[in-house]
Amino acid sequence: MTGKVGSHPDGGAQASICAYRPQGVSERAGAFARAVVSGAAPSSEARTKALLFAASRLGAFGESVGLELEAGVLLHPAVIERFIVAGERTFSAPTRRTLRTNLRSLARAVAAHPQPTPVALGRERAKPPYSAHELELFLASAKALSTPCRRMRAQALICLGAGAGLLGSELRHIRGADVSERCGGLVVEVGGPRARIVPVLARFHEPLLASAAFAGQGYLLGARNPDRKNLTCQLAALFCDRSLSRLDTGRLRSTWLHSAAQAIGLQTFMAAAGVRCSQRLGDIAAQLPAPSEAEMVALLGGSP
Q1: By CB distance 3.0 to 4.6 Å, which of 77, 138, 159, 297 could disulfide with 185?
Q2: From the CB of residue 242, how many other CB atoms can be counted at a distance below 10 Å?
Q3: In Å, how far from its chain's centre is CA 235?
Q4: Three-state SS for 267?
Q5: Residue by residue, what is the 3-state secondary structure of the chain?
């Protein structure tokens, strides 16, 4: 950190503030930093140093653009954002993120009427996948339904969810003609905002082909209006086997995701790379060449 915090016989955060004399910025910017950080009353010396550095750099920026070196002016959210943008060539991206966080914290600490702290919301977790045994029981339950129409539609719901990872409106808009044998496997052509070709996992090829042949040009899950949002719920209610829990389309998708992750060796890759969060995986994937349909089928849905 560019700046100097001198020693002080009393020690502690307040002593560090009094002794702070930054290098590379004016005395006015240093005085601004000492004033606002003192008002924030940081709890540790390390935190004090981090806030002093951020505030002094903000003070230097304020001087350069002709702003008053006052907390009410420089710690305004718009000024902080402008400082972060202006510092793009001066600071690295991680440093800019840290500066923004520290300055926002300062702004909250010294505000006369601070905004209430946001309530922490629970993070949505992936639903647990179904086991192979549970899927076999669901398929057997579908085959035991009273009419061919119900059997084919219930079977299609399981195959499209656990075999192709489809959910919500994507499930309801799939027609029998959208399922086809190509590239040595079975694929589903998905339309809508996220139009794509999805390979079907091999274990679901036979039952999904039967349902697709039965539906023909009609919708695999039935009904004339695929926008009926209760359609999948009505199909799920047909599985009345008391040994099974209610069919959950979210868990069906999790089952496909789990199977696909195993097929591509996702856990092996993340363990080897030391990656615990998928935040950057999308950025990495965007830089890779798009896979061909044959490559996707071979990896995820090829016939055994």
Answers
A1: 297
A2: 5
A3: 30
A4: helix
A5: CCCEECCCCCCHHHHHHHHEECCCCCHHHHHHHHHHHHHHCCCCHHHHHHHHHHHHHHHHHHHHCCCCCCHHHHCCHHHHHHHHHHHHHCCCHHHHHHHHHHHHHHHHHHCCCCCCCCCCCCCCCCCCCCCHHHHHHHHHHHHCCCCHHHHHHHHHHHHHHHHHCCCCHHHHCCEHHHEEEECCEEEEEECCCCCEEEECCHHHHHHHHHHHHHHCCCECCCCCCCCCCCHHHHHHCCCCCCCCCCCCHHHHHHHHHHHHHHHHCHHHHHHHHCCCCCCCHHHHHHCCCCCCHHHHHHHHHECC
The reported pLDDT for the residue numbered 4 is: 43
Distance from C-alpha of 11 to C-alpha of 51, rounded to nearest angstrom = 17
* AA letter at 143: K
Q: What is the pLDDT of residues 195-239, one digit of tens each?
A: 999 999 999 999 999 999 999 999 999 878 878 778 888 888 888
Phi, then psi, of 180 in degrees rounded to 5: -150, 155
